[in-house]
Specification:
2 copies of one chain form a homodimer.
Chain A lengths: L5 E2 L2 E2 L3 H14 L4 H8 L4 E2 H7 L5 H13 L3 E6 L5 E6 L1 H4 L2 H24 L4
Antiparallel strand pairs in A: 1-2, 3-5, 4-5
Chain A binds a DNA duplex (30 and 30 nucleotides) through helix 4.
Chain lengths: 126, 126
DNA sequence: GATATGGGTTTCCTTTTGGAAAGTAGTTTC
DNA sequence: GAAACTACTTTCCAAAAGGAAACCCATATC
């Protein structure tokens, strides 16, 4: 019999575990969310800062992604009393609880990247 | 100055870290991949088994998702010498290295779910 | 009043994703 | 040779995602 993957003593296909994973994926989906979170980790940013730093994103997508991140409590939005008005975005404490996931994804992705490279170079040696 | 999230001594927005996270997300994207992986963790499965167990998936999507998982080395495909021909899908050893990510995502998702529930019930108490 | 900056929203369009149903192909069963 | 089973692939369509450009509102500048 094939061995199974267990998470907290439950097999991974336990429906509640799969649902939980889907919930997490839903919050991080879209083309830009992780890049935005990464950008904000470097410090609080205003809308235009983000648009400049997140290469390629348009105002519409930036606005939409920020709204979703805010609704989910991962990013905060603060209107500053400046002239003209500026808006500051920041990672929340809750957003920082994503760190373990991001760490594991970064680790795995780097490992995967070097594995892919190796198989391109050495897959058919000689 | 706002504190930053660090992963292995690098700030999360380090481009290579973000790229690695994107790589990982790309492999797990789509509506069904995680469910398929979860299903296969319960044991090897044939095409029709998967179509029965992954509720709601159609043959086209199942085929496509399995191909992508196979290309990325997460799932193996074995044609068995039966009549009629059957095909067995299984998680690879490499696919099992996703476990830490899946564990963190399951943990976070469950925490998130209970937090959302709590805020629905107790957000405005009394 | 024309222009610029900040922070968006709206419109229109294309691309991508995903689903239902039918078709393909090999083999066995009747 | 018609039907059924496994394992897909193809076609056709609808919905969602995403992008470019224009537009809106406020303030300030020239």
């Amino acid at each position: 019999m094939k061995k199974k993957i267990f998470i907290d003593n439950k097999p991974l296909n336990c429906p509640s575990q799969l649902k939980a994973i889907h919930d997490t994926m839903d919050l991080l989906n879209g083309k830009w969310k992780i890049t935005i979170i990464g950008c904000l980790n470097f410090g609080n940013k205003r809308f235009m800062d983000l648009q400049r730093e997140v290469t390629g994103i348009g105002a519409k997508m930036l606005s939409k992604e920020l709204q979703e991140l805010e609704i989910n409590g991962l990013v905060s939005r603060t209107v500053l009393n400046t002239k003209p008005v500026t808006v500051e975005y920041a990672i929340t404490a809750y957003g920082e609880t994503l760190r373990p996931i991001l760490r594991e994804m970064a680790n795995w992705g780097q490992h995967h990247r070097s594995k892919v490279k190796a198989s391109l170079n050495g897959g058919k040696p000689g």
